[in-house]
Design a protein that fits this description.
The chain is an all-alpha fold. The chain has one domain. 87% of the residues lie in helices and 0% in strands. Helix 1 runs parallel beside helix 6 and helix 2 packs parallel to helix 6.
Length: 144
């Protein structure tokens, strides 16, 4: 199961990387599709992570459970508002912050420090790096 989860986690980076490459090398409609795809995919991943937080809230008690549910909903609302800015650079920056904030919350609210925790840190840092590469592509290529 560890290999499956790890494989799926890292495979989830491929759409980010493909979209970043598209922003840097494509033109016209394919580039616009890459630009939009990156933002939508980042939003989708944040919703997935928020759903994971929601799911793990069941095993929590009292205030910890309530906080986890509120954070899971807050992440989604923040991410959606980020996308609604309709400014790709701003949206990508805010989405990167949401990825980091979600990781920060997870690490602070869980005592687990095994392979999954290490994988989440690695994946989140790679996702943030891809957000930075995406923003740089928008700025350099003149879509910012």
């Amino acid at each position: 199961m560890t290999r499956l989860v790890t494989g799926l986690g890292y495979a989830g980076l491929l759409p980010f990387a493909a979209s970043v490459a598209g922003v840097w090398v494509l033109r016209d409609y394919p580039r616009a599709l890459s630009q939009q795809g990156f933002i939508v995919y980042s939003l989708a991943i944040l919703c997935f992570i928020a759903g994971s937080l929601w799911g793990t809230a069941r095993g929590r008690a009292g205030g910890d459970k309530a906080l986890r549910l509120l954070v899971s909903n807050g992440v989604v609302l923040f991410a959606v508002c980020s996308v609604l800015t309709a400014q790709a650079v701003i949206a990508a920056g805010l989405l990167a912050l949401a990825h980091l904030a979600t990781l920060w919350y997870e690490r602070g609210s869980s005592a687990a420090r095994g392979w999954y925790s290490r994988m989440r840190v690695q994946l989140t840092l790679l996702v943030v790096a891809l957000h930075i590469a995406y923003i740089a592509g928008l700025i350099v290529r003149g879509s910012a």
